[in-house]
Specification:
By secondary structure, the protein is mainly beta. It contains eleven helices and 45 strands. 11% of the residues lie in helices and 47% in strands.
């Protein structure tokens, strides 16, 4: 890639910052103990003292700004436990600390212990007062954020993770306004409010440039077992930048145990009850997870390894769905997270994650049913494919992260983060001869992908007079992607020999690119009064990219003489400024209203530019490569009243140059259109907890959108790839005893035919409903989990797969899973 002076200077500064942060991180500190340790904290604002104590002892301390505002902690000094240190810091404040079941300490004026809850009203108040989120890159009470926020807690994560190892299904089943569960490991049609979402795990961006329309996976890089909670910040913002025009979805990994050593083993078994042989190796899957975690003085660790052996998916008609979206693979993953608490203010931590996917050798035939479902069956010919040394299928994904934090640097909090990720994928042969695809799409090919990326995030925040907070920082990211394909000559002897070594053509699958982004941002929060808070921010984003030249293996474009035209790549650069402003007003102790205007900056999918630019024209300098600025308006409220808690928000987003993806009727060729675009909708949620043992919650979202493809003022409905249909989520949880709990979920996905009626989509989207039930029984050191999904064995096609209906990809119109039983037992020792 062409390197600018700006880029070289930035790299030098960031390298220097990393050296400084590592040097600071290795500053010696006094000996500490996991139980009793020496601690010295000077008098300071109470909020800062609580953070320092949490760092020193490696514990989580939850305290909202409303509770600690205006309070100062006295000096905390001596050899003591975490509880004693907290009690000393809270002396004279009228506050107390109580330890929750997950080990966190909750600070409140009146701590409500589960055993002392006398009225149902107390439950709702406590829920609203203790929700803290860090989705805005600093810890805030949820009521201080001037936009819609969703928090998926550990109980919900654990319940959904027991049903499926797919994180795509987890987020689709729990996050309103996000596309429904895909039931396959791609993020196709999983937009957030009709726009791209930026996914992060512990602050590490998971996605590459591409977007939901590309149908590429972002969430298959981690085992679902390591996730503790999920936070969703809706809408574009100034602190995360490019790729977050729809919002930010951030995963947080599990915290280490406070014990020195804790080991965990979990064994899961699942099967489809409609299979001919529920214990056979077509319908049965197994997953084994082992892990260890603990805290040893200033050092803490969390280790996790899992082996997931997946077989087929049986649909509601008791058919094996087509193998293209059935698993038939073995996934081995490793995750290691370590941390070191330097002193009461400083900490370093990092993780390394590795996923290795191996493919099954069994051969399946594909056919299409009368109702359009793609189904498969074990082929009579079980001669396995044989590959050469350079095309043996592999699927390896790696990610790593290093983070240094200083919570009292010049009176504020500093954070430095370095991250990286890479993927190497060689897919098995895709054999589509029986489906008679129309040229130029080949009926057999093998795809090769290589993705690499790394980046740095730095930020500094400081509060003044407990009413004014500033946050500013620098983000830098670079990535590169390449993807090729080989087409083979499958002669008359192929079904006997199965040799995948005689490629007749090799060319570009999706055009390679290299990309660099630099973002500078600042954010200000002001408590105007005790009830009114204003927020505003700005971000400047600069993007440099280079796209490769060549011809696509699935595309034949010729000139007047019949000679094939090569796509021209090149170097491009775009920059832009996005800003936001918002306000929250506490109209009462229980109700907060909010409103905001926010912009997002994003360049289009570089992988997709070849669909936009006419053959023979340079890709990188085309107007199609111009960025889009999204203007997002949002209003809403959140609150709690007695046993109830609730939230609601509505939004409208527009851009002069959107990007929508279309698939033509009966075709395998897609088209990206840059045109004016509008998105709009609302979501609402409500929860009720009439007793301490029962909670019922529901969430509803409706999204829609339009684009002006001809730029003539007449708008058509956006494709189902961009706009998810309405979604209703109903969750129930009942704790029958202290050891036994039951859960249930109703997920209803609505239909949408606007895009079909406008001639945008080849087929309408039909709605469907699934019902799940389950239970958790804690048996001393172990936990038994049983889940029954799709209880009524409903036959449905997930929304993501319905977007293939009417196109040339008939083998991908597969139904969702039928009735499935999942049982797991986990124990700690």
């Amino acid at each position: 890639m062409k390197r600018s002076i700006r880029t070289n200077v930035v790299r030098s500064l960031l390298a220097a910052a990393s050296v400084i942060s590592v040097a600071a991180a290795t500053t010696p500190a006094g000996a500490q103990s996991a139980t009793v340790q020496q601690i010295e904290i000077s008098a300071r604002p109470l909020s800062e003292a609580l953070v320092a104590i949490g760092r020193a002892y490696g514990v989580t301390v939850i305290a909202s700004d409303d509770v600690t505002a205006g309070k100062t902690a006295p000096p905390v000094s001596g050899a003591m436990t975490a509880e004693q240190a907290l009690a000393q810091a809270l002396a004279g404040s009228g506050l107390r600390a109580a330890r929750a079941a997950n080990g966190a300490y909750v600070i409140a004026a009146r701590v409500v212990e589960p055993a002392s809850i006398e009225t149902p009203e107390a439950v709702g108040r406590q829920v609203q007062d203790t929700i803290l989120v860090t989705a805005g890159r600093r810890r805030q009470n949820i009521n201080e954020i001037a936009r819609a926020v969703v928090v998926i807690d550990f109980d919900n994560v654990r319940t959904e993770a027991a049903k499926s190892s797919s994180i795509f299904n987890l987020v689709g089943a729990t996050i309103p306004a996000l596309g429904p569960p895909t039931q396959n490991n791609i993020n196709r049609a999983q937009t957030l409010r009709g726009r791209d979402a930026q996914y992060l795990i512990d602050g590490v961006p998971l996605g590459f440039n591409g977007g939901a329309g590309s149908g590429l996976g972002e969430l298959d890089k981690f085992d679902v077992e390591i996730i503790e909670r999920i936070e969703v910040l809706y809408g574009p913002n100034a602190v995360y930048g490019a790729g977050a025009t729809g919002g930010v979805i951030q995963f947080f990994t599990r915290a280490p145990s406070q014990e020195p050593f804790e080991f965990r083993v979990r064994q899961q078994f699942s099967t489809f009850l409609g299979a001919d042989d529920i214990f056979g190796d077509i319908a049965r899957s197994n997953k084994t997870t082992v892990g260890a975690s603990g805290t040893l003085g200033r050092f803490d660790y969390l280790l996790n390894a899992s082996f997931d052996s997946n077989n087929g998916v049986i649909d509601g008609e008791d058919d094996l769905r087509a193998p293209v979206f059935s698993s038939f693979d073995n996934e081995l993953s490793y995750f290691a997270k370590v941390g070191f608490t330097i002193d009461s203010d400083q900490r370093i931590e990092g993780f390394y994650n590795f996923v290795d996917l191996s493919f099954d050798d069994r051969v399946f035939d594909v056919s299409i049913t009368d109702d359009g479902r793609a189904v498969g069956q074990l082929s009579d010919n079980q001669v396995a494919f044989t590959y050469g040394a350079d095309n043996e299928p592999i699927n390896e994904k790696r990610a790593w992260n290093f983070r240094y934090t200083h919570d009292n640097l010049l009176g504020g909090a500093f954070a430095f983060q370095y991250y990286g990720r890479d993927e190497d994928i060689i897919e098995p042969l895709t054999d589509l001869r029986a489906l008679a695809f129309a040229p130029p799409f080949p009926d057999n090919f093998q795809a090769f992908f290589t993705d690499k990326g790394e980046g740095v995030r730095t930020q500094y925040s400081r509060s003044f007079l407990d009413r004014f907070n500033i946050l500013f920082g620098v983000d830098y990211n670079e990535e590169s992607r390449s993807s090729d394909a080989r087409v083979y000559e499958l002669g008359p002897d192929f079904d006997d020999e199965r040799s995948v070594t005689n490629a007749v053509r090799e060319d570009t699958f999706l055009f390679p690119y290299a990309l660099e982004t630099l973002g500078l941002f600042g954010q200000v929060d002001i408590a105007v009064t005790d009830r009114i808070r204003l927020t505003g921010g700005v971000r400047w984003e600069d993007v440099e990219f280079e796209i490769g030249s060549g011809t696509r293996v699935f595309e034949v474009v010729t000139d007047a003489n019949g000679d094939q035209i090569e796509r021209q790549g090149g170097f491009g650069e775009n920059d832009g400024v996005a800003w936001n402003i918002g306000a929250t007003i506490d109209v009462s102790e229980d109700v907060t209203v909010f409103g905001s205007f926010a912009q997002g900056f994003e360049i289009p999918s570089l992988l997709s530019l070849s669909f936009l630019v006419p053959a023979g024209e340079p890709l990188a300098t085309s107007a199609a490569a111009a960025p889009q600025i999204v203007d997002n308006y949002e209003i809403g409220l959140r609150g709690a009243a007695g046993i109830w808690d609730y939230s609601a928000s509505a939004y409208f987003a527009s851009s002069e140059l959107g990007a929508t993806f279309l698939l033509a009727q009966g075709s395998t060729q897609g088209e990206f259109i840059r045109a004016p675009q509008e998105n709009y909708g609302f979501e609402t949620s409500i929860g009720v907890e009439p007793t301490e043992r029962f909670r019922l919650s529901g969430a509803f979202s409706w999204n829609d959108g339009d684009f002006d493809g001809d730029d003539d003022g007449n708008f058509d409905a956006l494709s189902g790839l961009e706009v998810a249909p309405w979604k209703l989520i109903v969750d129930a949880r009942f704790d029958a005893t202290d050891d036994l709990s039951f859960n249930g979920k109703i997920l209803t996905i609505g239909g949408r035919d606007r895009a079909f009626d406008d001639g945008v989509d080849p087929a309408p989207v039909d709605g469907y409903t699934t019902v799940d039930i389950g239970g958790v029984y804690e048996t001393g050191p172990g936990v038994l989990t049983v889940q029954l999904t799709n209880v009524f064995n409903n036959t449905y096609i997930p929304t993501a797969n319905q977007t293939f209906a009417g196109t040339g990809f008939v083998d991908r119109v597969v139904a969702g899973p039928g009735r499935q039983l999942i049982a797991a037992y986990a124990f700690n020792f």
